[in-house]
Amino acid sequence: MARVLFTVTYTIDSDKMAEHEELVRRLRTINEERGTEYMVFQNKNNQIMEVTVYPNEAAFDESDDLMEEAPANEYISRINAMAQDIQYNTMYEVGAE
Q1: DSSP reduced 3-state for 31
Q2: CATH number at residue 84
Q3: 43-94: per-residue pLDDT in tens?
Q4: 19-32 core/surface letters (b: 16 or more CB in 10 A; e: else)
């Protein structure tokens, strides 16, 4: 089955980076428990890219419901509150069976 790549890009103010890193650590644990690949990258300008790879489209579709559960919803809400210029992108793997 084709995997789904979901990315979120945004910028965080320098004074919020420590809190952001802690929230990312907590989200990483939640995603690992669910068997989902979750990585977060940062550049020198505090631009962040969260990359989540779902094993298939069904897992991606279910992710909205799972992420609305506490505590994941709280962590995502806190990140969204401090993030600027949020952009989402969803891509589907081609050539996979």
Answers
A1: helix
A2: 3.30.70.100
A3: 999 999 999 999 999 999 988 877 778 899 999 999 999 999 999 999 999 9
A4: ebeebbeebeebbe
